[in-house]
Amino acid sequence: MASHSDANSLRDFWIPGHVLVPDSVVEGSNIDIEGPKCPVLVFVNSRSGGQLGGELLKTYRALLNENQVFDLGEEAPDKVLSRIYANLENLRLQGDHIAIQIMEKLRLIVAGGDGTAGWLLGVVCDLKLSHPPPIATVPLGTGNNLPFAFGWGKKNPGTDEQAVKSFLDQVMKAKEMKIDNWHILMRMRAPKQGPCDPIPPLELPHSLHAFHRVSEADELNKEGFHTFRGGFWNYFSMGMDAQVSYAFHSERKLHPEKFKNQLVNQSTYAKLGCTQGWFFAPLFHPPSSNIAHLAKVKVMKTHGGWEDLQIPSSIRSIVCLNLPSFSGGLNPWGTPNKMKRRDRDLTPPYVDDGLIEVVGFRDAWHGLVLLAPNGHGTRLAQAHRIRFEFHKGAAEYTFMRIDGEPWKQPLPVDDDTVLVEISHHGQVNMLATHDSKSKSVNDPSSPHHNDVEEDDSDDEEAKADEYRKFGAADTFKIPDEVDLAHLS
Predict the structure, then answer these.
(1) Which of 69, 98, 124, 286 has its CA 20 to 30 A from that of 371?
(2) Over the stretch 10-29, which tens digit does the pLDDT of each residue have?
(3) Where in this protein does the record put region Disordered (predicted)?
(4) Which CATH number fits domain 181-436: 3.30.420.40, 2.60.200.40, 3.30.160.20, 3.40.630.30?
(5) Which residues are within 8 A (CB) of 242 and not within 5 positions of it... i.e. 6 or more apart?
(6) Rounded to an integer, what distance in angstroms lies between the CA atom of residue 449 and that of residue 457?
(7) What's the rounded Cα separation, in Å, for the pair 103 and 70?
C-alpha cells in the first residue's frame, strides 16, 4: 500500500473501492464529498517490454487502489470496462455524487505495445459509452507509434514511483483530441483446398485480436465466402515491411530470452530487414510480389465514387496511415507545401479528418528519405476508403500488418475475388501532451492555419542515396555488426 504522504499526493487519481467493486458497502453520504480530480483506470500488458510490464504493474498497484489497475494478461479490457461502467450507472441512479463525477472525469492509461493500445481503443469504441473516456498510452513496445504520435515519447518508461507519478501528472495536464478509427474487411471465396485464415507469427499472445473471421450470424457474412474484419488506429500495411515484422515476431516467440531490451529488439529488427532482403529488394524480392502485381487498388476520394489508383511497379510496400508516426516515429506523409496542396489536392495528415494517407516504399533505402527534413515516401492518395482486389493466382500469400501486429495471409490460387477494403468507422478520444505530433483539423495551431512554406522535396532517390552514409531509424538501419557479404 502507498504511504500516507503518497496517498495525499495521489488522491487526485485515486478511485474509491465502492466504485470499482460491485455491491460494495458505501459508508456515509457522498452527496457533498468531492471526488478525484483526475480518476484513472490503468491497463498494463505485463508481457510487454520484457520485464518492464510486470514492474510497472507493481508500481501502479502500490501507488493507487489495486482495483483500479489491471493486468491485460489476466482480464480483457471489455470485461473490466463493462463491469465498472455498469456499477457507475447503478451508483448514478442511486444519486452517488462521486460516481457521477468519476463517470464525467475518468481517463484511461494503457501500457503496452501498439497492438495492446489498439485493443483498448477498439473496446472503448465498441462499447459506445455515454461518456467515452480519453486514453493515454505508455510506450512499452518496440515501435511505440501511438504514444509517440500523441507526445508520450517512444522510449520505454521508468517503472519506479517517481516516474509513474510524473506520468500521472502529465495525464492530468493532457488535452483531449479525437482520432479516426478505420474498419478493415477482407472477403474471399472459400478455397477448394487449403486454409485461408490469417497465420499469426507462431501464435503470439493477443496477436490478431483486431482481425478475425466473422461468425455466420454477422451481417457481413456471405454464404460461400470467408469474411474477416478488424479495425486499426495507426496503420495498415502490406508487403515487405510486414514480412520483416512477421519474421521479427516469429524470432521473438522462438527466443524470448533475447528480447528483454528495447535497443536489442530494434537491432534484431534491422538485422532481419537485411536477411529478408528489405535493403536489397531488387536482388532478393521477386517482382511478382510487388504491390502493383499483386492487386488492383481503388480509392474513394469523394463519397460515392471509386477510381483506380496507379501504383508504380517498383513499390514493394504500401502503408495506409492514420497517424503521423510509423516505423518508430517517422512521418511518411510529411506536410505537403502549398503548391502540392493546390495541384494534387493534398492536405496535411490530420488524425480526425476522415481521410487516410496512402504511401508507398520501394525498399528500406527509400525509407531513409524520412530522416531528411520534410522527407516523405511516395504519396499515392488521400481517401475516405481504399480497396485492394487481388489478381487470380498472383501469389500464394502476402504479408499484412495492423498497428504493429503482422500476419501471413494465404491467397486462394483458384479465385480472383479476394477483396480487402478499408473504410472510416468512427472516432475515440485520445489524450495528447502539448508536444503532440498529431494535429486536429479543428486545431488553430495545425499547419493549414498558417502559411509556412515547406521545402517538401520530391527528390526521394537523391535523399535516400545521401542517407545511406548515416545512421537511420531502427527499421531501416543496417547494424554495424551485420556482414553484408554473407546475406542471402
Answers:
(1) 286
(2) 899 999 999 998 876 665 55
(3) 433-466
(4) 2.60.200.40
(5) 317, 399, 400, 401, 406
(6) 21
(7) 18
Helices (H), 190-337: 240-254, 262-275, 281-284, 291-294
Nearest CA to 234 out of 349, 316, 114 is that of 114
Cβ atoms of residues 356 and 364 within 8 Å: no
Sort 245 into a burial class: Cβ within 10 Å, 0-12 / 13-18 / 19+.
buried
Task: For residue 149, give the nearest of 324, 347, 358 by alpha carbon.
Answer: 324
Alpha carbons 29 and 473: distance in angstroms, whole number:
56
Closest CA to 477 of 463, 467, 485, 487: 467
Q: Is 474 helix (H, G, I), strand (E, B) or coil?
A: coil
Q: Is 167 left (phi over 0), alpha (psi -120 to 50) or beta?
A: alpha
**Are 72 and 8 contacting, i.e. CB atoms less than 8 angstroms apart?**
no
Q: What angle do CA 392, 393, 394 make, to 5 degrees?
A: 95
Contact 258, 264 (CB under 8 A): yes
CATH class of 7-173: alpha beta
Q: Tell me: the pLDDT tens digits for 143-196?
A: 788 999 999 998 888 899 999 999 999 999 999 999 999 999 999 887 777 778
Question: Do 7-173 and 181-436 share a fold?
Answer: no
